[in-house]
From TrEMBL:
Domain 4Fe-4S ferredoxin-type: 287-315
Record's keyword terms, sorted: 4Fe-4S, Electron transport, Iron, Iron-sulfur, Membrane, Metal-binding, Transmembrane, Transmembrane helix, Transport
Transmembrane segments: 71-88, 117-137, 189-206, 218-237, 365-388
Lipoprotein as UniProt keyword: no
Gene Ontology MF term list: 4 iron, 4 sulfur cluster binding; metal ion binding
Gene3D superfamilies recorded: 3.30.70.20, Immunoglobulins
Superkingdom of origin organism: Bacteria
Lineage: Bacteria, Pseudomonadati, Pseudomonadota, Gammaproteobacteria, Alteromonadales
GO CC terms: plasma membrane
Disordered, as annotated region: 1-52
NCBIfam families reported in the protein's UniProt record: ccoG_rdxA_fixG
Keyword Metal-binding: yes
Organism name: Aliidiomarina haloalkalitolerans
Gene: ccoG
Descriptive protein name: Cytochrome c oxidase accessory protein CcoG
Stretches with biased composition (Polar residues): 8-20
């Protein structure tokens, strides 16, 4: 990562300092005073984990950043829960029906032929993530990632049932008794209920959610729906309840490649080492300069509130998810000590070095330009999209035949798909050969989001077939809107 000293706290090591070598000559034995002892900074053990434990006991944080994260998380959670229950024209507004290969998004239905629109959406999402990461670091992880949101929800229930950080540590250290059993049982029971409701809501994006919530409890849901609900229940319970920071530090690829998008102007959660060091405890309201200390009182609250258990004072680390919990904790301590806030803050390395943060730079402008171009292509694709598919298939068993009147006949199968969410009546015609005759219906009515096949026959007087094969054009037009039309070319064969 350019400009950053990323520390791997799991396998961190310090490089030995350069030592100057000196030659030793034989000298008479003399008594010398011992050199003065150098001050050694002893790193305190990780107090977020009790000895012998591999579990992080996160302390609750309060402050502006935490309030912002909770409000945003609640809004996104509410959006996730409400969206599949919305209706549009009497149907579920958002439904990704994989079995029938159609995605319904409010007034638009996407079929396999429309996957270019989904491709645009995925590319836009990727470049938006790149742009946000370049400008503001891992705010996606700290404020909007589902893993983070559900983890904090599970942690909230854990605190309400088992108590604060120290209470939970003492509860886990004592032997099993009735009180501990009931608290643990209640916590895991609520976790499973939340995970089950989450899984049912998620699966409701892919099947009729109203039928799912009824049939699942009546044991009438399909094997696919039941299996999906149970799988995502287990995944949510395991990820948010047990794995937590392991997902962020070991399994999420975003933490690994984020460094490629960081630079000196990227906003990160950072500790002002120049202002905070040397750290050390002192009484409240004491001027740190008078005792030769920095503003950091070494309370370790920034470590206790971190959901991944890192010490932000060691520098930028890939485990940091930019949730800002340490910012709130440190600001609260600084306020109580009578010191200026923002010892730990959302800032940039350039600003810490005394420079001015640059918002418009090559990387951010490049991602922003790509995002604008892709968004324009998506809008253009949606505007030019025609909710109609029309295919013409020639009968391959009989290339042609001659009827009783001596006319040449070719048989075709017309496959028509109404991709809109409203019933449509279509008129079909053919041209390209003089005096062509049509045998079959000229109109067809299709229900919303339906496909039908219609066999027809074309007949031509051999007099007009001066060559063995001629091109014929089929045209289909919606009676309600002439802009909904398609033209497909095929061949009429004779001899």
């Amino acid at each position: 990562m350019a400009g950053f000293n990323v520390v791997d706290t799991k396998n961190g090591s310090q490089s030995p300092q350069n030592e100057t070598s000196s030659e030793h000559h034989a000298q008479p034995i003399t008594v010398q005073k011992a050199p003065p002892k150098k001050s050694v900074h002893i790193q305190k053990p990780d107090i977020s984990k009790p000895p012998g434990k591999n579990h992080i006991y996160v302390r609750e944080a309060e402050g502006k950043v935490e309030t912002t994260r909770r409000v945003l998380g609640f809004a996104l959670m509410a959006l996730f829960v409400v969206l599949p229950w919305l209706t549009w024209n009497g149907e579920q507004a958002i439904l990704f029906n994989i079995m029938e290969q159609r995605f319904r998004i409010f007034g638009m239905t996407l079929w396999p032929q429309d996957f270019t629109i989904l491709a645009w959406i995925f590319m836009i999402s990727a470049f938006a993530l790149f742009l946000v990461t370049t400008l503001f670091g891992r705010v996606w992880c700290g404020f909007t990632c589902p893993q983070t949101t559900w983890t904090f929800i599970f942690m909230w229930f854990e605190r309400k049932i088992e108590g604060g950080r120290h209470q939970r540590m003492k509860l886990d250290e004592r032997p099993m008794d009735a009180d501990k059993f009931l608290r643990k049982f209640a916590k895991h029971a609520i976790w499973i209920v939340v995970a089950l409701l989450t899984a049912m809501t998620f699966v409701g994006y892919f099947t009729d959610i109203r039928a799912l919530f009824t049939d699942f409890w009546l044991l009438n849901s399909s094997a696919w729906a039941t299996g999906s609900v149970l799988f995502f229940t287990f995944a949510t319970y395991g990820n948010a309840g047990w794995m937590r920071e392991v997902m962020c530090t070991h399994m999420c690829p975003y933490a690994r490649f984020q460094s490629a998008m960081f630079d000196k102007d990227t906003y990160i959660v950072a500790y002002n080492e120049e202002r905070g060091e040397p750290r050390g405890p002192r009484k409240r309201k004491v001027d740190p300069a008078s005792i030769g200390k920095g503003d950091c009182i070494d309370c370790n609250l920034c470590v206790q509130v971190c959901p991944t258990g890192i010490d932000i004072r060691n520098g930028l680390q890939y485990e940091c998810i930019n949730c800002g919990a340490c910012v709130d904790a440190c600001n609260d301590v600084m306020d109580k000590m009578g010191y200026p806030k923002q010892l730990i803050s959302f800032t940039t390395q350039r600003r810490l070095e005394g420079g001015q943060t640059k918002v418009f730079r090559l990387k951010s402008v490049g991602y922003g330009t790509a995002l604008i171009v892709l968004s324009a292509l998506l809008v253009l694709d949606i505007i030019l999209r025609i909710p109609l598919e029309f295919d013409v298939i020639r009968d391959r068993n009989t290339l042609y035949r001659v009827n009783a009147e001596g006319w040449v006949e070719n048989v075709y199968t017309l496959r028509i798909s109404n991709k809109s969410q409203e019933p449509q009546t279509f008129t079909i015609s053919a041209r390209g050969i003089e005096d062509i005759q049509w045998y079959g219906p000229h109109q067809i009515e299709l229900a919303p989001e339906s496909t039908e096949s219609m066999p027809i026959t074309l007949a031509v007087d051999p007099y007009f077939m001066d060559i063995p094969m001629k091109e014929v054009t089929f045209e289909i037009i919606a009676d309600s809107d002439e802009r909904i039309s398609r033209r497909v070319k095929s061949n009429f064969i004779y001899r």
